[in-house]
Write a structure and sequence with these properties.
Keywords: Metal-binding, Signal. It comes from Streptomyces longisporus. Helix content is about 45%, strand content about 20%. By secondary structure, the protein is of the alpha/beta class. It is elongated and about 60 Å long.
Length: about 280
């Protein structure tokens, strides 16, 4: 028969074993809590969904250089994505969008042309102004005709080109001419600002009223002449996500890039004004 002393010793060992197991469990919990505290969470953090696919951007012709740069930046930051652009007159692009053309983002050169899209309910939320642009006269290199003002463009000896009045750059030019009480009959009206500028680049015209950004982008191919009346005809550029965007997630990310400090740097570097 087992002595009382032996039974007491076994009970003490059992209690000690339970206590040790409890201490080990507590230690493990403490270690786990400590690690969770260090990582800032008790469960693995869910990462943002990876962007992929094509983002289709309809944008005013004057945005061509800066948006092309931002498109490359976007693709680099989001491997597996591709940004495709359709540049042109804002009114033409707006008509294409309301006509059902598939696109994710619309960036217009004026609130008036953006309204064509919003009025049809094809935009998501309220379009945001991200930059502004101002007019400038583009002349032949060296300015051989000595153009120094908006009034100089009214000389009958000069071949001058304007954007069509339905296009933002044309509407702005007309606003500046009206404010100056000047009448100008151009040799042609062009459907977008790049087409107007190209007439001077090809020496088919002596001068054109375009945006400062376009003069800057053309470099030595033209010479820019500022005129004070342009301050009364500055265009706001709004951007929006489109209602039936095929790739809404990537489209939102592209718009965020345009509105970011990085995007602003590219745009102001191209000559655009801050909103």
């Amino acid at each position: 028969m087992m002595t009382r002393s032996v039974r007491r010793t076994r009970r003490m060992l059992q209690v000690t074993g339970v206590s040790a197991a409890a201490l080990l469990a507590l230690s493990a919990c403490s270690s786990s809590d400590s690690n969770s505290a260090k990582s800032g969470t008790s469960a693995p953090a869910s990462s943002s969904p990876k962007l992929s696919g094509t983002v289709t951007v309809f944008a005013a012709a004057s945005l061509k250089e800066s948006f092309t740069t931002l498109g490359k930046e976007f693709e680099k930051a989001h491997p597996g994505t591709k940004v495709t652009f359709s540049f042109g007159g804002s009114d033409t692009l707006a008509a294409q969008i309301t006509g059902g053309a598939p696109a994710d983002v619309f960036a217009a050169a004026s609130p008036k042309t953006m309204k064509i899209v919003t009025a049809k309910g094809d935009a998501v939320g309220t379009p945001a102004t991200f930059v502004r642009n101002q007019l400038e006269i583009a002349t032949l290199p060296g300015n051989p005709d000595k153009v120094a003002s908006l009034k100089d463009l009214t000389k009958s000896s000069l071949k001058v080109v304007l954007c069509d009045r339905t296009v933002p750059c044309g509407a702005a030019a007309q606003k500046a001419l009206t404010a100056s009480k000047l009448k100008l009959t151009p040799v042609s009206y062009e459907q977008d600002v790049k087409s107007a500028l190209n007439k001077v680049v090809l020496k088919e015209a002596d001068a054109a009223v375009v945006y400062k950004t376009d003069v800057k982008a053309a470099g030595a191919k033209v010479q820019g002449v500022e005129f004070p009346e342009s301050a009364d005809a500055v265009n706001d550029y709004p951007i929006t996500l489109l209602k039936d965007a095929p790739n809404a997630a990537a489209a939102k990310a592209f718009i965020a890039l345009v509105q970011s400090a990085e995007g602003r740097q590219v745009l102001t570097g191209a000559g655009f004004l801050k909103p």
